[in-house]
Amino acid sequence: MSRITRLTAKIPGPDTGIEVKKSLCAICDPLTQCGLDVYLKDARIIKIEGSAEHPFNKGAICPKGAAGRQYVYHENRIKTPLRRVGPRGSGTFEPISWDEALDSIAEGCMTAKSGYGPESVIFFSGYTKYFRPYLRRLARSFGSPNYCTESSTCFMATAMAQKLVFGAPGGPDMANTDCLMVWSSNPYHTAHGRGAAIDRALDRGMKMIVVDPRRTPTTSRAHIHLRPRPGTDGALALSMANMIIEENIYDADFVANHTYGFEEYREYVRTFTPERGEELTGVPAANIRAAARMFATARRACIMPSASPVVHHTNGVQNYRAVFMLAALTGNYDVRGGNFVEPPSYLYVSGKMKTREDEFENPKPLSELAPRIGSDRFPVWMEIANGEAQSMHIPEQLRSGKPYPLKCLIGFGMNYRMWPDSEGFLKSLRNLDLIVNADIFMTDTCRRSDIVLPACTSLERSELRCHSMGYVQLSSPVIEPLYESRSDVDIIIDLAKRLCPDDPLFKQGYRATLDWILSPSGLTVDELEKSPGGMFLKNPINPPERKYESGARTPSGKIEFKSTVLEKYGERPGFESLPVYNPPKYSPDASPDMAKEYPFILNTGSRLPMFIHSRVNHLSWTRSLRANHPAADVNPEDARRLNIAQNDGLRLSTPFGSIEVRANLTEMVMKGVVHMYHGWGSADVNTLFEGDYLDPISGFPGFKSSLCKIERIVEAAA
Amino acid sequence: MMTRNQSIIVDMERCVGCGACAVACMDQNDLLPERGETSCRRIYQMEYTDERDAVIQYLSAGCQHCDDSPCLIACPTGAIYRDERSGATLVDRDRCIGCHSCALACPFGTPRYDADDRMLKCNLCAGRVEAGMDPACVKACAFGALNFGDPNRLQDDKESRYANGLAGAFARTR
């Protein structure tokens, strides 16, 4: 920084030899792919910025994306395909060629298929997500029903809760609403484009209610912040409903004409007075009343859900059903300014365009294949989730071999620490004949695999993304893949040549498959490639309001206060057809004896702005933004009582395990709750959970409420 | 083209402490924490309790480029100087002798020192601004917490946002 020149300032131009190419960031995912301006000199990335013309990020970038250069060039990149040479888990590998790697994987899969059937091979996707349609098609063409993803613990249960109530999920129409109720999401730290959109709406006078046990930048912007104890969301929603019905401020026409089960629901919520709500949730009754009034009397109001916080409880789906029913009760479903339904386009996003994604992903119907992993245990998942297996059941099926054995696990971006009792899950993998993981970096999961494949980052390949504002982007590589790394899709297509050579689409290669998927949209790869930074659709599909009038996509054809899907499982605990509130399995209310020894509520897995799971934990730029060690959030008042100071060593324990962390004293976390971030190899909080601590409806782990204790480690670690 | 009226202005109501500005600065200036270099923007999370409740406040802190820079006055070698075009307080690091006089003089704790003990601080991305671009930290910010420009123009923007919000509130209650 001695002399400032156009070169040192990285100004693009012929004089500096610096050029800017368009791409997108896929470090976090989905719905939040920011457009990137990548500065290059001599074919090397020298700087990354947000693209000003991109409608999601509008030129901005988050700390993770801003660290993209370190991400691409990090020394921990996997450089060649690798084959394990020592015992499994020893971490000793030898480099092999791509052909050797793909041939051995194919041989392992074909051996399993001939001995135990194609269902014995699991295809798993962690992050990123752009290749998922390809991986699912590979599984189906090969004949395996066992395609599963990280959605076994993220987002899908939220979608299930919405589907149970509405049939089709509706997103918050923030641009047109008068009142936004954010239910446990903090987009200012997780999806900045959405946070900025909230700011714009607040600037034009929108009211905002935020429900969150934590204090966050989102809650500090709220007109009303409701702070329920973790896992009591259902009781809070029910007491808001009680108030809305008692005060007769619900939409009686909508309820009478378009809903099912209202009388039983009304009867059930009768006991949830705001005073009882206060008792169950800790939220003052006056605040429950104020929020219920604000939400129900707004001309238009909508709910912004979160992917995981509400459904990471053993009662998660029931809780979120109770929440979404507030949109039904107030007639705010599928209207502008409410929770508006737009049909899905591609990769979970409703992008105002039509594709053949579903047809592409499912060359064979599930009915022709063996039952998916978790079929007996999670029947509602099997009925209404999106056709994936429920991967939380993998360890159980590996241990029992029932109803059929599992032999191979082909992972892309798989992280074994995602599972509750992560070490137990890892042990169960011993029963597999073959573990493969494709990833960008040599992760702990790669070290425990038999074959490791080097994938490249989004800047080294192409991917298709669409956005809710009717914007579509097919990125082009800005640099060649580093080392011998390859795009995940190319790896999948080469595996397909070996595993399902007759697949008519895979044979034609990446571009042809994309054109096939895109054909209903009228777009082509050729056209999209001309605008590598993306483009607005010429003819965006804008569906009408109130599509439920011609029949909601529930079994009853109505919006359901009483679920006709759950009704079928009436005798199973937790499957009540009304949104019955049960406290989390391990909580002061449900397990008071355990709470005597473990007096704190353990809440885990919130996001920090500079990290996303463990994907950028190894970069010095992101790490420099936070103390360089795993730390648990403790409320300052609890800390004083226990004589705990900032950065003290803590032992954080549940009956199932303990980890050593540092104390971070903060008002972000409420009194009586300890919050621990996930994804730390040296202090893996998921080891503190039992493997079967799951919501019986969705199979989602109860990561956001269990019970724990903390003890100061007298000799604080150096 | 820069004028002396332009500076980086922090809107503390908008800052969420995400640190995008800090990383963007390190990317722009090739600063590496492992070499002991810090970003020229640093993030603070301040917590206090008022009579009603606890409050959490975030701040992205960096050089203020003061009009009467105490660091410039204190520098014995003239390494710190005023850039007449931009009004930025800059350091000619070749002339810096690592005496830390600037650290003693600066009331904001801004100057930092690299492995060679030479002062390191924000240069207002003068090269970018000269080329018509915003400073890297300002470009990164998603929430308008960091702004670059004439303070009066930025106040105009803020006031009109406030007025529009009022108009929205009236429209709803009519």
3D structure, described in words:
- The complex is a heterodimer of chains A (718) and B (174).
- By secondary structure, chain A is α/β, with parallel strands linked by helices.
- Helices cover 29% and strands 17% of the residues of chain A.
- In chain A, strand 10 (207-211), helix 8 and strand 11 (224-226) form a beta-alpha-beta unit.
- In chain A, helix 3 packs across helix 20 (488-499), helix 5 (156-166) crosses helix 14 and helix 9 crosses helix 13 (285-297).
- The model of chain A has no long low-confidence stretch (mean pLDDT 96).
- Chain B has 174 residues and is of the alpha+beta class.
- Chain B has a domain at 63-121: Alpha-Beta Plaits (2-Layer Sandwich), CATH 3.30.70.20.
- Chain B is 30% helix and 20% strand.
- Chain B has helices at residues 20-29, 70-74, 101-105, 126-130, 136-140, 151-173; strands at 7-10, 42-49, 54-61, 80-82, 89-91, 112-113, 119-120, 146-149.
- Chain B has a two-stranded antiparallel sheet with strand order 1-8. A two-stranded antiparallel sheet of chain B has the order 2-3. A two-stranded antiparallel sheet of chain B has the order 4-5.
- The model of chain B has no long low-confidence stretch (mean pLDDT 91).
- At the A-B interface, strand 3, helix 7 and helix 24 of A face helix 1, strand 2, strand 3, helix 4 and helix 5 of B.
Low-confidence stretches of chain A: none
The greatest interface here is:
A-B, 53 and 56 residues
- Taken from the alpha-carbon principal axes, the silhouette of chain A is globular
Task: Give the count of helical stretches of chain B.
Answer: 6
What CATH first level of the domain at 63-121 in chain B would be assigned? Alpha Beta
The third-level CATH topology of the largest domain in chain A is Rossmann fold
Q: Which architecture of the largest domain in chain A does the CATH hierarchy give at level 2?
A: 3-Layer(aba) Sandwich
How far is the N terminus from the C terminus of chain A? 35 Å
Q: Tell me the number of strands of chain A.
A: 27
| Order of strands across the main sheet of chain A | 5-4-17-16-15-6-7
Q: Beta-strand percentage of chain A? A: 15-25%
Terminal-residue CA separation of chain B: 46 Å
Structural class of chain B: alpha+beta
- In the CATH hierarchy, the third-tier topology of the domain at 63-121 in chain B is known as Alpha-Beta Plaits
Number of strands of chain B: 8
C-alpha Rg of chain B (nearest Å): 18 Å
Number of helices of chain A: 25
What is the alpha-carbon Rg of chain A in Å? 25 Å
Query: What number is the mean pLDDT of chain A?
Result: 96
